[in-house]
């Protein structure tokens, strides 16, 4: 028999989950699967539970309103199920409590629910219907884990959880499993690095933000949240967000991430950006106010011959072709080509782009065209898949006059704290982020931290952008009071002599 909750109280204590409560549930879920099961199954169950609970509260609100309008109870029930009252077409048979009613058929019910939701809701196609719980539970151990996960998520309702809180929970899962997935080659950009980049670029309502290597959507979500915090949610909805991701599984996670955060005005496409960019206009690339990314570092297989097989290569790789062993400068050139004539680009990339010989020709041309505004050396051990420090490069296609033929170098190698959870890793704390962002905004010299360097000096250094050539952290030196120190040393020496005299006396008595 189908179940439907008719007496939902969104203001009740059970309906209001805090961030810590959500994370507590997800921590228990993480403990259940450990490293034996792909963490994506936690995310899909979280997403499905949210959709189900939200449909129920939408139903309840529409039902109550129909009764107030004078409809009989049965008429109100029929009315409250109409699609216009709901974000998604969600058949009753797939509501959470109905799915878990027959434990033995749980894998089949979940798989059917996800497949049907993908068919009924075009914006969920290739998002929820990519997970096969039947195949997942072929092992007896996994079947038991699935039952435990479903019961864990059944303990509380997720309908009255704010998108920010639930979104933070979703991000917590990605963050929690990042060290393990890094060993398998997955790239996870620490959210504090993303926050720094977005803080620097400072997008505003009605502007566009594009991430050509969008992963799980962290850059775009951070841009949305930045505008939301500065201007309010209504203005954040006026931000135009675009992303492209090559991996279909990762793209599905990204779309779920957007739904969980209740970010609807976003376009996400699947495809190989370096060869087949999806965003086009007037038979060329679509242009954006901001282009941001943490592309795969030193990606192989994108030499000249490969890139010339792609679309718009003449308009994108105008400064030359990278080595086949590292696509870093291919990514950067695509990003610069995708920016408006007054646009900015922010890229998190390997330090090698700053000084390696194979990138010198492209580096020189970009510098001579006065596109690079700022180079930021990050602390080491921020990233899960490498101990290398990494760099943020900021390109400005419309530099103000006072910045022309100059580059700001920021050495933020000492701006970190120990990671609170992962040994041997570091994080950027809020004060670190603010200090770096202030230095970028100020565009001025600060001893041992930031320096505005004229292009002529960079030419003299053979277009080497290694930050430590231009800014080196100050070494703290302790002022020593020589006279005082000398007196202290003399006193120590006297004590030693006295002790030796007394010891010698004891030895003489013994002999």
From TrEMBL:
Keywords associated with the record: Endonuclease, Hydrolase, Methyltransferase, Nuclease, Restriction system, S-adenosyl-L-methionine, Transferase
Q: Does the keyword Nucleotide-binding apply?
A: no
Domain N6 adenine-specific DNA methyltransferase N-terminal as annotated: residue spans: 22-153
Q: What class of enzyme is it?
A: transferase
Catalyzed chemical reaction(s):
a 2'-deoxyadenosine in DNA + S-adenosyl-L-methionine = an N(6)-methyl-2'-deoxyadenosine in DNA + S-adenosyl-L-homocysteine + H(+)
Give the EC number(s) under which this enzyme is classified.
2.1.1.72
Gene Ontology MF terms in the entry: DNA binding; endonuclease activity; N-methyltransferase activity; site-specific DNA-methyltransferase (adenine-specific) activity
Q: Biological process GO terms, please? A: DNA restriction-modification system; methylation
- Pfam families assigned: HsdM_N, N6_Mtase
Its domain of life reads: Archaea
Taking every annotated instance into account, which residue ranges of this chain make up the domain DNA methylase adenine-specific?
Answer: 162-478
The protein in question is named site-specific DNA-methyltransferase (adenine-specific)
Print the organism lineage. Answer: Archaea, Methanobacteriati, Methanobacteriota, candidate division MSBL1
């Amino acid at each position: 028999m189908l179940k439907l909750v008719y007496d939902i109280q969104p203001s009740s204590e059970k309906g209001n989950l805090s961030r810590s409560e959500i994370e507590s549930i997800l921590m228990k879920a993480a403990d259940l699967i450990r490293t034996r099961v792909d963490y994506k199954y936690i995310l899909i169950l979280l997403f499905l539970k949210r959709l189900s609970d939200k449909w129920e509260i939408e139903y309840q609100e529409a039902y109550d309103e129909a009764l107030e309008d004078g409809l009989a109870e049965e008429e109100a029930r029929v009315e409250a199920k109409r699609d216009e009252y709901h974000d998604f077409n969600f058949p009753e048979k797939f509501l959470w409590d109905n799915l878990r009613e027959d434990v033995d058929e749980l894998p089949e019910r979940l798989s059917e629910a996800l497949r049907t939701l993908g068919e009924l809701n075009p914006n969920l196609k290739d998002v929820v219907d990519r997970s096969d719980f039947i195949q997942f539970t072929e092992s007896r151990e996994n079947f038991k884990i699935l039952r435990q996960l479903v019961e864990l998520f059944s303990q509380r309702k997720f309908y009255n959880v704010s998108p920010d809180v639930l979104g933070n929970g979703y991000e917590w899962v990605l963050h929690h499993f990042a060290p393990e997935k890094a060993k398998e080659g997955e790239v996870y950009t620490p959210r504090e690095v993303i926050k720094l980049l977005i803080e620097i670029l400072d997008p505003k309502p009605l502007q566009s933000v594009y991430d050509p290597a969008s992963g799980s959507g962290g850059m775009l979500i951070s841009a949305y949240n930045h505008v939301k915090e500065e201007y309010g949610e209504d203005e954040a909805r006026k931000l135009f967000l675009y992303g492209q991701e090559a991996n279909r599984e990762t793209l599905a996670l990204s779309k779920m991430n957007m739904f969980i955060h209740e970010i609807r005005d976003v376009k996400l496409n699947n495809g190989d950006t370096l060869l087949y960019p999806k965003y086009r206009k007037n038979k060329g690339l679509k242009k954006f106010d901001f282009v941001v990314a943490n592309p795969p570092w030193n990606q192989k297989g994108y030499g000249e011959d490969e890139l010339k097989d792609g679309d718009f290569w003449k308009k994108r790789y105008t400064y030359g072709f990278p080595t086949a062993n590292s696509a870093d400068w291919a990514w950067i050139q695509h990003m610069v080509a995708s920016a408006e004539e007054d646009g900015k680009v922010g890229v998190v990339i390997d330090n090698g782009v700053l000084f390696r010989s194979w990138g010198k020709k492209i580096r020189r041309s970009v510098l001579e065209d006065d596109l690079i505004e700022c180079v930021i050396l990050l602390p080491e051990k921020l990233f899960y898949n490498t101990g290398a420090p990494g760099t943020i490069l900021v390109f400005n296609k419309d530099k103000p006059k006072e910045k022309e033929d100059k580059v700001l170098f920021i050495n933020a190698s000492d701006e970190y704290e120990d990671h609170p959870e992962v040994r041997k890793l570091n994080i950027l704390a809020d004060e670190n982020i603010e200090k770096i962002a202030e230095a970028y905004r100020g565009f001025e010299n600060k001893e041992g931290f930031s320096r505005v360097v004229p292009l002529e000096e960079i030419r003299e250094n053979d277009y080497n952008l290694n930050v430590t050539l231009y800014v080196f952290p100050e070494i703290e030196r302790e002022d020593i009071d020589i006279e005082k120190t000398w007196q202290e040393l003399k006193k120590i020496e006297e004590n030693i002599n006295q002790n030796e005299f007394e010891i010698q006396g004891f030895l003489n008595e013994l002999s």
